[in-house]
């Protein structure tokens, strides 16, 4: 009787822990299962997201009404959300990982935001319409409507030599300063100290690009999230989720992505803690 009770206790503890179903089964063997955590639901979702990893705070811009895009600040742990006033139509967002400072770019130029001080400073460059921002030692940006890449230094702007001839929708740099960019043709890589873009993959259409905490380049499309593997420079799908518009990574290197109506964090689960739901779509007949 006593033994039976003991076994029952173990079984009920087991069942209690295995209460979560796998929302997304990954092809990455070290992270087999993800649970989707909805950070916020939003009508006109952003394509550009960025995390200040020093405080684990997510920044994104959203349609505040009448087509005006304003930045929102979301504390990832508390889910507290607030709107940042003073930056209009700034839907390009980037974080400087060395200082934690955020940068916003839009039709009125580039703004630097210092979160502890809650101060906003506009960089003094006129007639600058920003499409994309990326910060690594320098402030890099893509101008609209030409979609050409520049950087800001000593109060002047210069074109990025490696990208001089390219139409660029978004770009990032990895740890070795290799450049990766997406445009209407596909995903391109440019090796450091070279300026010849190499087409890495031309399908599906890539909508967003981001580096994770280890400098690995990820791209997203309507049908999933892909990683650019270092060794062989291949582009491999790692997560099968639909309608991904933009991606970023939190301070624990978890993927955060937006689709047309939500911003979602993918939290990896230990293998023992979940059930895999059988998906009949993959059954062979
Ligand atoms: C949420 O953030 C706002 C703005 O930063 C702050 O005033 C408010 O106290 C916060 N609320 C909670 C519950 O933390
Ligand atoms: C934040 O504010 C303090 C006090 O005004 C100032 O000394 C400091 O330089 C500010 N930091 C930044 C990064 O602007
Ligand atoms: C930027 O300006 C400083 C001071 O005028 C100068 O020493 C430095 O060489 C300049 N850097 C570049 C890249 O032009
Ligand atoms: C994308 O960039 C490549 C490399 O510069 C260029 O050949 C191609 O025409 C661009 N695609 C579009 C649609 O602009």
Automatic annotation (TrEMBL):
Gene name of this polypeptide: HaOG203355
InterPro entries in alphabetical order: WD40/YVTN_repeat-like_dom_sf (IPR015943)
Source organism of the structure: Helicoverpa armigera
Protein name, entry field: Ommochrome-binding protein
């Amino acid at each position: 009787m006593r033994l039976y009770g003991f076994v029952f206790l173990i079984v009920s503890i087991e069942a209690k822990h295995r209460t979560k179903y796998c929302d997304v089964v990954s092809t990455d063997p070290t992270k087999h299962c993800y649970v989707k955590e909805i950070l916020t639901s939003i009508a006109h979702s952003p394509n550009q997201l960025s995390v200040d990893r020093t405080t684990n705070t997510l920044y994104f811009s959203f349609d505040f009404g009448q087509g005006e895009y304003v930045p929102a600040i979301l504390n990832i742990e508390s889910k507290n959300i607030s709107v940042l006033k003073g930056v209009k139509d700034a839907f390009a967002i980037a974080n400087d990982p060395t200082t934690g400072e955020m940068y916003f770019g839009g039709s009125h130029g580039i703004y630097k935001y210092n979160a502890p001080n809650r101060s906003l400073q506009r960089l003094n460059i006129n007639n600058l319409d920003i499409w994309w921002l990326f910060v690594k030692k320098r402030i890099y940006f893509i101008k609209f409507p030409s979609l050409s890449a520049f950087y800001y230094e000593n109060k002047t702007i210069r074109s990025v030599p490696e990208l001089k001839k390219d139409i660029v929708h978004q770009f990032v740099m990895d740890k070795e300063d290799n450049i990766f960019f997406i445009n209407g043709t596909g995903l391109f890589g440019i090796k450091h100290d070279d300026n010849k873009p190499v087409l890495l993959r031309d399908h599906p259409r890539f909508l967003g690009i981001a580096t994770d905490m280890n400098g690995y380049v990820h791209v997203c499309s309507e049908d999933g999230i892909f990683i650019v593997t270092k060794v062989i420079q291949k582009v491999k799908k790692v997560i099968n989720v639909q309608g991904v518009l933009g991606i970023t990574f939190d301070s624990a290197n978890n993927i955060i992505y937006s689709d047309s109506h939500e911003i979602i964090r993918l939290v990896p689960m230990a293998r023992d803690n979940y059930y895999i739901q059988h998906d009949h779509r993959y059954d062979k007949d």
